Amino acid sequence: MGGALLLLAGCNTLPDSGPTEAQVNHAQRDPKKNTVGYGIVQVTPELVSQLAQEVPPALDSLDTGNVPTIQTNNDTVGPGDVLQVSIYEIGSALFSPSSAAMTASSVSGTNTLPSPSTASNLPPLPIDGNGDLDVPFAGLIHVTGMTTDQVAETIQARLKTKSQSPQVLVRISSDIANSVMVYGGVQRPSRIPLTPNRERILDVIALAGGEERPSGDERQPQTDEDYVVRLTRNGRIAEMPLKVIENEPTQNILMQAGDRVQLTFQPRTYTVFGASDHVTQTHFKTPTLTMAEAISRVGGPVDSRSDPNAVYLFRFENTDVLRRMGLPVEGNAPTAPIVYQLDMMNPANYFLAQKFMMRDRDLIYIANSSSNKFYKFFGLISTIIAPGITAAWMAK
Protein backbone atom coordinates (compact mmCIF):
# COMPACT_ATOMS: atom_id res chain seq x y z
CA MET A 1 0.00 0.00 0.00
CA GLY A 2 2.84 2.36 0.85
CA GLY A 3 4.41 1.63 -2.52
CA ALA A 4 1.11 2.39 -4.27
CA LEU A 5 0.74 5.70 -2.44
CA LEU A 6 4.31 6.59 -3.32
CA LEU A 7 3.59 5.70 -6.94
CA LEU A 8 0.49 7.92 -7.06
CA ALA A 9 2.31 10.79 -5.41
CA GLY A 10 5.12 10.48 -7.90
CA CYS A 11 2.71 10.48 -10.84
CA ASN A 12 0.91 13.60 -9.63
CA THR A 13 4.13 15.57 -9.42
CA LEU A 14 5.05 14.90 -13.06
CA PRO A 15 4.59 17.78 -15.55
CA ASP A 16 1.80 17.60 -18.11
CA SER A 17 0.80 19.52 -21.22
CA GLY A 18 -2.86 19.85 -20.25
CA PRO A 19 -5.84 18.39 -18.37
CA THR A 20 -7.44 14.99 -18.88
CA GLU A 21 -11.10 14.49 -19.73
CA ALA A 22 -11.97 14.02 -16.05
CA GLN A 23 -10.13 17.20 -15.11
CA VAL A 24 -11.88 19.21 -17.84
CA ASN A 25 -15.31 17.97 -16.71
CA HIS A 26 -14.50 18.63 -13.05
CA ALA A 27 -13.29 22.15 -13.79
CA GLN A 28 -16.49 22.88 -15.71
CA ARG A 29 -18.60 21.96 -12.67
CA ASP A 30 -16.43 23.92 -10.22
CA PRO A 31 -17.59 27.57 -10.03
CA LYS A 32 -14.21 28.61 -8.66
CA LYS A 33 -12.45 27.32 -11.77
CA ASN A 34 -15.17 27.95 -14.34
CA THR A 35 -15.20 31.71 -13.86
CA VAL A 36 -16.33 32.43 -17.45
CA GLY A 37 -19.35 30.13 -17.18
CA TYR A 38 -18.70 27.82 -20.13
CA GLY A 39 -20.64 24.63 -20.78
CA ILE A 40 -19.65 21.38 -22.47
CA VAL A 41 -21.84 20.10 -25.31
CA GLN A 42 -21.40 16.81 -27.15
CA VAL A 43 -21.15 17.02 -30.94
CA THR A 44 -24.29 15.36 -32.30
CA PRO A 45 -26.07 15.33 -35.68
CA GLU A 46 -28.67 17.75 -34.26
CA LEU A 47 -25.93 20.14 -33.14
CA VAL A 48 -24.20 20.07 -36.54
CA SER A 49 -27.51 20.80 -38.29
CA GLN A 50 -28.28 23.65 -35.91
CA LEU A 51 -24.88 25.28 -36.38
CA ALA A 52 -25.15 24.91 -40.17
CA GLN A 53 -28.35 26.99 -40.11
CA GLU A 54 -26.66 29.89 -38.33
CA VAL A 55 -25.81 32.73 -40.68
CA PRO A 56 -24.25 36.09 -39.82
CA PRO A 57 -26.17 39.31 -40.49
CA ALA A 58 -26.30 39.71 -44.26
CA LEU A 59 -25.60 42.96 -46.05
CA ASP A 60 -29.07 42.99 -47.57
CA SER A 61 -30.51 43.07 -44.05
CA LEU A 62 -29.48 46.73 -43.92
CA ASP A 63 -32.06 47.44 -46.63
CA THR A 64 -34.93 46.01 -44.56
CA GLY A 65 -36.84 48.76 -42.82
CA ASN A 66 -34.08 51.17 -43.72
CA VAL A 67 -35.38 52.81 -46.88
CA PRO A 68 -34.10 56.37 -47.37
CA THR A 69 -36.60 59.17 -46.84
CA ILE A 70 -35.90 60.52 -50.32
CA GLN A 71 -35.53 57.94 -53.08
CA THR A 72 -32.90 59.15 -55.52
CA ASN A 73 -31.00 57.91 -58.53
CA ASN A 74 -27.74 59.43 -57.28
CA ASP A 75 -28.39 62.59 -59.31
CA THR A 76 -29.62 64.89 -56.53
CA VAL A 77 -27.57 67.60 -54.86
CA GLY A 78 -26.95 68.31 -51.20
CA PRO A 79 -24.75 70.11 -48.67
CA GLY A 80 -21.08 70.14 -49.62
CA ASP A 81 -21.64 69.72 -53.35
CA VAL A 82 -20.11 72.24 -55.74
CA LEU A 83 -22.15 73.12 -58.84
CA GLN A 84 -21.04 74.48 -62.19
CA VAL A 85 -23.75 76.80 -63.55
CA SER A 86 -23.79 77.99 -67.16
CA ILE A 87 -26.27 80.67 -68.28
CA TYR A 88 -27.15 81.44 -71.91
CA GLU A 89 -28.85 84.77 -72.64
CA ILE A 90 -30.16 86.68 -75.67
CA GLY A 91 -29.65 90.39 -76.15
CA SER A 92 -28.48 92.37 -73.16
CA ALA A 93 -26.85 89.80 -70.90
CA LEU A 94 -26.79 90.02 -67.11
CA PHE A 95 -23.68 87.92 -66.69
CA SER A 96 -21.61 88.94 -69.71
CA PRO A 97 -19.06 91.80 -69.55
CA SER A 98 -20.31 92.93 -72.97
CA SER A 99 -23.65 93.98 -71.45
CA ALA A 100 -22.07 97.14 -69.98
CA ALA A 101 -20.65 98.14 -73.36
CA MET A 102 -24.01 97.58 -75.03
CA THR A 103 -25.74 99.75 -72.43
CA ALA A 104 -23.20 102.56 -72.99
CA SER A 105 -23.67 102.43 -76.76
CA SER A 106 -27.42 102.71 -76.36
CA VAL A 107 -27.05 105.82 -74.21
CA SER A 108 -24.66 107.48 -76.72
CA GLY A 109 -26.97 106.66 -79.61
CA THR A 110 -24.45 104.38 -81.33
CA ASN A 111 -26.22 101.83 -83.51
CA THR A 112 -24.82 98.57 -82.11
CA LEU A 113 -26.53 95.26 -82.85
CA PRO A 114 -26.86 92.94 -79.82
CA SER A 115 -25.23 89.56 -79.91
CA PRO A 116 -27.73 86.80 -80.75
CA SER A 117 -26.73 84.86 -77.60
CA THR A 118 -24.22 85.07 -74.82
CA ALA A 119 -22.86 82.15 -72.71
CA SER A 120 -21.60 82.80 -69.21
CA ASN A 121 -19.99 80.28 -66.86
CA LEU A 122 -20.37 81.31 -63.24
CA PRO A 123 -17.61 80.52 -60.76
CA PRO A 124 -18.08 77.18 -58.96
CA LEU A 125 -20.98 77.60 -56.54
CA PRO A 126 -20.88 75.58 -53.29
CA ILE A 127 -24.00 74.39 -51.47
CA ASP A 128 -23.80 75.40 -47.82
CA GLY A 129 -24.52 73.27 -44.76
CA ASN A 130 -28.19 74.23 -44.84
CA GLY A 131 -28.54 72.99 -48.39
CA ASP A 132 -28.81 76.49 -49.88
CA LEU A 133 -27.26 77.77 -53.12
CA ASP A 134 -26.55 81.48 -53.60
CA VAL A 135 -26.84 82.50 -57.28
CA PRO A 136 -26.23 86.09 -58.43
CA PHE A 137 -29.49 87.87 -59.39
CA ALA A 138 -31.45 84.72 -58.43
CA GLY A 139 -30.86 84.88 -54.71
CA LEU A 140 -30.70 82.08 -52.13
CA ILE A 141 -32.26 78.80 -53.30
CA HIS A 142 -32.79 75.72 -51.13
CA VAL A 143 -31.64 72.93 -53.43
CA THR A 144 -31.17 69.85 -51.17
CA GLY A 145 -32.87 66.85 -52.76
CA MET A 146 -33.20 68.52 -56.17
CA THR A 147 -31.78 67.07 -59.36
CA THR A 148 -29.51 69.21 -61.50
CA ASP A 149 -32.38 69.73 -63.97
CA GLN A 150 -34.63 70.96 -61.16
CA VAL A 151 -31.95 73.36 -59.94
CA ALA A 152 -31.54 74.71 -63.48
CA GLU A 153 -35.29 75.20 -63.84
CA THR A 154 -35.49 77.06 -60.51
CA ILE A 155 -32.62 79.41 -61.43
CA GLN A 156 -34.11 79.99 -64.87
CA ALA A 157 -37.52 80.87 -63.40
CA ARG A 158 -35.96 83.49 -61.12
CA LEU A 159 -33.94 85.06 -63.95
CA LYS A 160 -36.81 85.38 -66.43
CA THR A 161 -37.84 88.77 -65.07
CA LYS A 162 -34.25 90.04 -65.20
CA SER A 163 -32.84 88.57 -68.39
CA GLN A 164 -34.12 87.97 -71.90
CA SER A 165 -34.95 84.26 -72.50
CA PRO A 166 -32.30 82.82 -70.14
CA GLN A 167 -31.34 79.18 -70.48
CA VAL A 168 -29.53 77.46 -67.59
CA LEU A 169 -27.39 74.32 -67.47
CA VAL A 170 -26.22 72.86 -64.15
CA ARG A 171 -23.79 70.05 -63.50
CA ILE A 172 -22.14 68.71 -60.35
CA SER A 173 -18.42 69.45 -60.38
CA SER A 174 -17.73 68.08 -56.88
CA ASP A 175 -20.20 65.43 -55.68
CA ILE A 176 -20.25 65.03 -51.90
CA ALA A 177 -23.90 64.28 -51.19
CA ASN A 178 -24.02 61.28 -53.55
CA SER A 179 -20.87 59.50 -52.42
CA VAL A 180 -19.63 56.67 -50.21
CA MET A 181 -16.40 56.30 -48.27
CA VAL A 182 -14.28 53.24 -49.10
CA TYR A 183 -11.28 52.62 -46.88
CA GLY A 184 -9.20 49.93 -45.17
CA GLY A 185 -7.50 47.24 -47.22
CA VAL A 186 -8.09 48.79 -50.64
CA GLN A 187 -5.43 50.18 -52.95
CA ARG A 188 -6.90 53.70 -53.12
CA PRO A 189 -8.95 54.61 -50.04
CA SER A 190 -11.16 57.48 -51.15
CA ARG A 191 -14.59 59.02 -51.45
CA ILE A 192 -16.38 57.38 -54.37
CA PRO A 193 -19.10 59.47 -56.08
CA LEU A 194 -22.25 57.55 -56.97
CA THR A 195 -23.78 57.99 -60.40
CA PRO A 196 -27.24 57.40 -61.89
CA ASN A 197 -25.84 54.05 -63.00
CA ARG A 198 -26.53 52.87 -59.40
CA GLU A 199 -23.23 51.37 -58.22
CA ARG A 200 -23.20 48.28 -56.02
CA ILE A 201 -20.82 47.40 -53.21
CA LEU A 202 -18.44 45.40 -55.43
CA ASP A 203 -18.41 48.30 -57.89
CA VAL A 204 -17.20 50.85 -55.34
CA ILE A 205 -14.56 48.42 -54.05
CA ALA A 206 -13.30 48.00 -57.61
CA LEU A 207 -13.31 51.79 -58.14
CA ALA A 208 -11.12 52.07 -55.04
CA GLY A 209 -8.58 49.77 -56.69
CA GLY A 210 -9.79 46.48 -55.24
CA GLU A 211 -8.25 44.66 -52.31
CA GLU A 212 -4.70 45.53 -51.40
CA ARG A 213 -2.57 42.41 -51.51
CA PRO A 214 0.12 42.80 -48.85
CA SER A 215 3.34 40.96 -49.55
CA GLY A 216 3.22 38.12 -47.06
CA ASP A 217 4.47 34.66 -46.33
CA GLU A 218 3.80 32.18 -49.13
CA ARG A 219 2.62 29.78 -46.44
CA GLN A 220 -0.18 32.26 -45.73
CA PRO A 221 -2.04 32.56 -49.03
CA GLN A 222 -4.31 35.58 -49.38
CA THR A 223 -7.75 34.60 -50.61
CA ASP A 224 -10.95 36.59 -50.93
CA GLU A 225 -12.31 34.58 -47.99
CA ASP A 226 -9.75 36.34 -45.78
CA TYR A 227 -11.08 39.79 -46.71
CA VAL A 228 -14.07 41.00 -44.70
CA VAL A 229 -16.39 43.73 -45.98
CA ARG A 230 -17.87 45.91 -43.23
CA LEU A 231 -20.78 48.12 -44.28
CA THR A 232 -22.04 50.93 -42.04
CA ARG A 233 -25.39 52.44 -42.99
CA ASN A 234 -27.48 54.79 -40.87
CA GLY A 235 -25.90 53.56 -37.65
CA ARG A 236 -26.30 49.86 -38.50
CA ILE A 237 -23.39 47.54 -39.26
CA ALA A 238 -23.08 44.25 -41.17
CA GLU A 239 -20.00 42.23 -42.04
CA MET A 240 -19.48 39.53 -44.63
CA PRO A 241 -16.52 37.85 -46.32
CA LEU A 242 -15.75 39.32 -49.72
CA LYS A 243 -16.02 35.88 -51.32
CA VAL A 244 -19.60 35.45 -50.10
CA ILE A 245 -20.60 38.75 -51.72
CA GLU A 246 -18.95 37.65 -54.96
CA ASN A 247 -20.80 34.32 -54.94
CA GLU A 248 -24.22 35.61 -53.82
CA PRO A 249 -25.60 38.37 -56.08
CA THR A 250 -28.28 39.23 -53.50
CA GLN A 251 -25.54 40.45 -51.16
CA ASN A 252 -24.02 42.73 -53.81
CA ILE A 253 -26.43 45.45 -52.71
CA LEU A 254 -26.93 48.93 -54.13
CA MET A 255 -24.98 51.68 -52.45
CA GLN A 256 -26.72 54.57 -50.76
CA ALA A 257 -25.31 58.04 -50.22
CA GLY A 258 -23.48 58.21 -46.91
CA ASP A 259 -22.53 54.50 -46.77
CA ARG A 260 -19.13 53.60 -45.36
CA VAL A 261 -17.39 50.49 -46.71
CA GLN A 262 -14.36 49.08 -44.94
CA LEU A 263 -12.32 46.22 -46.39
CA THR A 264 -10.17 44.37 -43.86
CA PHE A 265 -7.63 41.60 -44.38
CA GLN A 266 -8.28 39.09 -41.60
CA PRO A 267 -6.42 35.81 -42.19
CA ARG A 268 -8.46 33.07 -40.53
CA THR A 269 -6.60 30.86 -38.08
CA TYR A 270 -7.25 28.16 -35.51
CA THR A 271 -5.07 26.93 -32.65
CA VAL A 272 -4.33 23.40 -31.45
CA PHE A 273 -3.16 22.44 -27.96
CA GLY A 274 -2.74 19.21 -26.05
CA ALA A 275 -1.71 15.74 -27.14
CA SER A 276 -1.23 16.35 -30.85
CA ASP A 277 1.83 16.15 -33.08
CA HIS A 278 1.98 19.95 -33.29
CA VAL A 279 0.90 22.62 -30.85
CA THR A 280 0.50 25.43 -33.33
CA GLN A 281 -1.59 28.17 -34.86
CA THR A 282 -2.65 27.22 -38.39
CA HIS A 283 -4.11 29.24 -41.24
CA PHE A 284 -7.23 27.97 -42.99
CA LYS A 285 -5.68 28.27 -46.49
CA THR A 286 -9.00 27.16 -48.03
CA PRO A 287 -12.42 28.82 -48.34
CA THR A 288 -13.93 26.41 -45.78
CA LEU A 289 -12.45 24.04 -43.23
CA THR A 290 -14.03 21.18 -41.30
CA MET A 291 -13.05 19.93 -37.86
CA ALA A 292 -11.77 16.67 -39.38
CA GLU A 293 -9.49 18.58 -41.75
CA ALA A 294 -8.27 20.87 -38.98
CA ILE A 295 -7.29 17.95 -36.73
CA SER A 296 -5.61 16.04 -39.54
CA ARG A 297 -3.46 19.05 -40.50
CA VAL A 298 -1.68 18.93 -37.14
CA GLY A 299 -1.15 15.17 -37.19
CA GLY A 300 -4.19 14.15 -35.15
CA PRO A 301 -4.10 12.71 -31.61
CA VAL A 302 -0.82 11.10 -30.55
CA ASP A 303 -1.39 7.43 -29.68
CA SER A 304 1.03 7.40 -26.74
CA ARG A 305 -0.34 10.50 -25.00
CA SER A 306 -3.86 11.39 -26.13
CA ASP A 307 -7.38 10.45 -25.15
CA PRO A 308 -9.41 10.29 -28.40
CA ASN A 309 -12.60 10.25 -26.32
CA ALA A 310 -11.97 13.87 -25.39
CA VAL A 311 -11.31 16.18 -28.33
CA TYR A 312 -12.59 19.63 -27.41
CA LEU A 313 -13.30 22.72 -29.47
CA PHE A 314 -13.39 26.00 -27.55
CA ARG A 315 -15.40 28.83 -29.10
CA PHE A 316 -17.18 32.07 -28.29
CA GLU A 317 -20.60 31.20 -29.70
CA ASN A 318 -23.48 33.53 -30.49
CA THR A 319 -25.84 33.68 -27.54
CA ASP A 320 -28.87 33.08 -29.78
CA VAL A 321 -27.46 29.66 -30.64
CA LEU A 322 -26.82 28.86 -26.97
CA ARG A 323 -30.39 29.82 -26.05
CA ARG A 324 -31.72 27.46 -28.72
CA MET A 325 -29.60 24.73 -27.13
CA GLY A 326 -31.26 25.47 -23.79
CA LEU A 327 -28.08 26.73 -22.18
CA PRO A 328 -28.25 29.61 -19.69
CA VAL A 329 -26.94 32.93 -20.97
CA GLU A 330 -26.23 35.85 -18.69
CA GLY A 331 -26.71 39.47 -19.68
CA ASN A 332 -27.06 40.84 -23.18
CA ALA A 333 -23.61 39.88 -24.46
CA PRO A 334 -23.59 38.89 -28.15
CA THR A 335 -21.34 35.85 -27.52
CA ALA A 336 -20.60 33.43 -24.70
CA PRO A 337 -17.98 30.68 -24.22
CA ILE A 338 -18.87 27.10 -25.09
CA VAL A 339 -16.91 23.85 -25.41
CA TYR A 340 -17.87 21.22 -27.98
CA GLN A 341 -16.67 17.67 -27.27
CA LEU A 342 -16.04 15.05 -29.96
CA ASP A 343 -15.55 11.35 -29.14
CA MET A 344 -13.20 10.06 -31.80
CA MET A 345 -13.44 6.51 -30.49
CA ASN A 346 -16.93 6.40 -32.00
CA PRO A 347 -16.58 5.85 -35.77
CA ALA A 348 -19.90 7.62 -36.43
CA ASN A 349 -18.44 10.84 -35.09
CA TYR A 350 -15.91 10.97 -37.92
CA PHE A 351 -18.84 11.75 -40.22
CA LEU A 352 -19.88 14.55 -37.88
CA ALA A 353 -16.32 15.91 -37.85
CA GLN A 354 -16.51 16.17 -41.65
CA LYS A 355 -19.57 18.44 -41.37
CA PHE A 356 -18.62 20.46 -38.28
CA MET A 357 -17.36 23.74 -39.77
CA MET A 358 -14.43 25.58 -38.20
CA ARG A 359 -14.49 29.31 -37.58
CA ASP A 360 -11.86 31.95 -37.22
CA ARG A 361 -10.06 31.85 -33.84
CA ASP A 362 -11.39 28.41 -32.86
CA LEU A 363 -9.23 26.45 -30.39
CA ILE A 364 -8.93 22.66 -30.46
CA TYR A 365 -7.67 20.82 -27.38
CA ILE A 366 -6.87 17.09 -27.47
CA ALA A 367 -6.97 15.85 -23.88
CA ASN A 368 -4.19 13.81 -22.37
CA SER A 369 -4.84 10.21 -21.48
CA SER A 370 -5.32 9.52 -17.77
CA SER A 371 -2.73 6.73 -18.02
CA ASN A 372 -0.19 9.08 -19.54
CA LYS A 373 1.30 10.00 -16.17
CA PHE A 374 1.85 6.34 -15.30
CA TYR A 375 3.77 5.81 -18.51
CA LYS A 376 5.80 8.94 -17.79
CA PHE A 377 6.51 7.77 -14.24
CA PHE A 378 7.64 4.30 -15.33
CA GLY A 379 9.73 5.91 -18.06
CA LEU A 380 11.37 8.11 -15.44
CA ILE A 381 12.05 5.11 -13.16
CA SER A 382 13.50 3.17 -16.07
CA THR A 383 15.78 6.09 -16.90
CA ILE A 384 17.04 6.21 -13.32
CA ILE A 385 17.62 2.49 -12.74
CA ALA A 386 18.73 1.54 -16.26
CA PRO A 387 22.36 2.65 -15.74
CA GLY A 388 22.57 0.57 -12.51
CA ILE A 389 21.21 -2.52 -14.21
CA THR A 390 23.61 -2.07 -17.07
CA ALA A 391 26.56 -1.61 -14.70
CA ALA A 392 25.58 -4.74 -12.72
CA TRP A 393 25.28 -6.78 -15.88
CA MET A 394 28.69 -5.56 -17.07
CA ALA A 395 30.21 -6.39 -13.66
CA LYS A 396 29.14 -10.01 -14.06
Automatic annotation (TrEMBL):
<dbReference type="Pfam" id="PF02563">
    <property type="entry name" value="Poly_export"/>
</dbReference>
<keyword id="KW-0813">Transport</keyword>
<protein>
    <submittedName>
        <fullName>Sugar transporter</fullName>
    </submittedName>
</protein>
<feature type="compositionally biased region" description="Polar residues">
    <location>
        <begin position="104"/>
        <end position="121"/>
    </location>
</feature>
<feature type="domain" description="Polysaccharide export protein N-terminal">
    <location>
        <begin position="72"/>
        <end position="172"/>
    </location>
</feature>
<dbReference type="GO" id="GO:0015159">
    <property type="term" value="F:polysaccharide transmembrane transporter activity"/>
</dbReference>
<dbReference type="InterPro" id="IPR003715">
    <property type="entry name" value="Poly_export_N"/>
</dbReference>
<keyword id="KW-0762">Sugar transport</keyword>
<dbReference type="InterPro" id="IPR049712">
    <property type="entry name" value="Poly_export"/>
</dbReference>
<feature type="region of interest" description="Disordered">
    <location>
        <begin position="104"/>
        <end position="125"/>
    </location>
</feature>
<keyword id="KW-0732">Signal</keyword>
